[in-house]
Amino acid sequence: MSDDPIDRSGLSPRFWEDKRLDEMSGAEWEALCDGCGKCCLNKLEDEDTGEVALTRVACRLFDDATCRCASYDTRHAFVPECIVLSPKTIPDHAYWLPSTCAYRLLWEGRPLPDWHPLLTGTPDSVHRAGVSVRGQTVSEVTLDEDEWEDHIIDEPV
Ligand code: SF4
Ligand code: SF4
């Protein structure tokens, strides 16, 4: 797993089946992220209905080639609104998180999909399964916000 930017080494096998989200260590929590990149896409939320539409317009720090944040550790200096997911904040965010997001799935009491890197041993499996947004985004720095609605997409699942 040397090409995996997330360190998933040394974790107990299937720890996510034995522990609640709030019982996990920091390393276990970080290892849950599958690297799909879908949470880094801008969403359009209808204020009246609460409906959320996904766009392919990515955050300015999103690297479309690697499908990762280009500056994860220092991201809040550039994108202060980037959320910090935690067991405490998940209830507030679950409604807009991608349907395949591991944090959302576990919070809903559902299993991880068989393409998850924790099960396959490689971060490539998320791309091979067609559930990531690698190579499919346009950066928000290239568009005006009123153009986002022209880039609404269905979530790749
Ligand atoms: S949607 Fe969830 S699993 Fe996918 S990159 Fe974001 S936090 Fe990680
Ligand atoms: S700052 Fe990084 S982690 Fe946050 S939305 Fe942007 S690309 Fe994603």
TrEMBL record:
Superkingdom as given in the UniProt entry: Bacteria
Similarity remark: Belongs to the UPF0260 family.
PANTHER family: UPF0260 PROTEIN YCGN
UniProt name for this protein: UPF0260 protein ROJ8625_03073
Lineage of the organism: Bacteria, Pseudomonadati, Pseudomonadota, Alphaproteobacteria, Rhodobacterales
